[in-house]
Design a protein that fits this description.
The protein has 2 domains: 179 residues, GAF domain (Beta-Lactamase, 2-Layer Sandwich), CATH 3.30.450; 62 residues, Orthogonal Bundle (Arc Repressor Mutant, subunit A), CATH 1.10.10. It is 61% helix and 14% strand. The chain starts with 8 loop residues before the first helix and ends with a helix. It is α+β, with helices and mostly antiparallel strands and 257 residues long. It is elongated, with a radius of gyration of 27 Å. A 5-stranded antiparallel sheet has the order 2-1-5-4-3, with helices on both faces. Helix 8 packs across helix 10.
């Protein structure tokens, strides 16, 4: 078990309590009760929720003036979907542009990265040169995991060169656990909504096809199978989707009445 060397035990207790309070709030948002479901679906899909996570990290970890989340997409695209301060976007952009830096290393290796400004030139020379004038002097990045893969990192930036300690790492790891859950939930919600949209489209198509079949059966005295065959033949002959043919037939019969 790690030991945290700090001068004031009350300060440690205060920091841990602050994290616990923030996580209690987060847990309520992620509750599974029915009345919370709309909030869950909405907040999981907006960067503002992850932005709140970044702000909690800044508020509860001394020395962290800014925080941001790095996410690497399936196609390799790297983005910063949320941050506590717009300056984070500039710092992250230099990492993405140079292909090096603490958040990218944490995301790629799954290992927490702590570094101070005097260590940057030797470790990441291109990144060090790019951020020289941005005022960030201490970096802490912890990996975000999703389904066993490293999908990004939760990053802290400090304007003092004190660096971050073991307790800071432990607290940030707690936040990454919940951050990964939110990222995963957002992906799952998007997939579910896409599936629902597909089902709605399919149901609408089926409904209009049934209406077109009924119109053909009524107007031409066809059986159900024969009416469907007519729709298929027109669709193939005109190279138009079956639902579009059906919609056209339903509209034309409606115009006659």
């Amino acid at each position: 078990m790690p030991h945290y060397f700090v001068d004031d035990q009350d300060e440690v207790t205060h920091r841990v309590d602050a994290v616990a309070s923030a996580l209690d709030d987060l847990h309520r948002r992620l509750g599974s009760h029915t009345e919370q479901a709309p909030v869950l679906l909405e907040t999981a899909r907006v960067p503002g929720f992850l932005g709140q996570l970044c702000q909690w990290a800044v508020d509860t970890i001394p020395g962290a003036q800014m925080s941001g989340i790095t996410v690497i997409g399936d196609d390799g695209t790297v983005t910063t979907p949320a941050c506590s301060d717009p300056r984070v976007v500039d710092v992250d952009a230099d990492q993405y542009r140079t292909g090096q830096g603490p958040c990218l290393e944490a995301a790629a290796t799954g290992v927490v990265v702590r570094v101070r400004i005097d260590e940057l030139p030797e470790r990441w020379p291109a990144f060090a040169a790019a951020v020289r004038g941005l005022g960030v002097r201490s970096y802490l990045s912890a990996p975000l995991r999703l389904d066993g893969d490293h999908v990004g990192a939760l990053n802290l930036y400090g304007t003092d060169d004190h660096g971050f300690g073991d307790l800071d790492v432990a607290l940030l790891r707690i936040y990454t656990t919940f951050g990964a859950a939110v990222v995963g939930l957002s992906r799952d919600v998007d997939a579910a909504l896409d599936e629902v949209a597909g089902l709605r489209t399919a149901m609408a198509s089926r409904a209009v096809i049934e209406q077109a079949k009924g119109a053909l059966m009524s107007s031409r005295g066809l059986s159900e199978d024969a009416a469907f065959t007519v729709l298929v033949e027109v669709s193939q002959r005109e190279n138009v989707k079956l639902a579009a043919v059906a919609r056209r037939i339903v509209t034309s019969f409606g115009d006659r009445t």
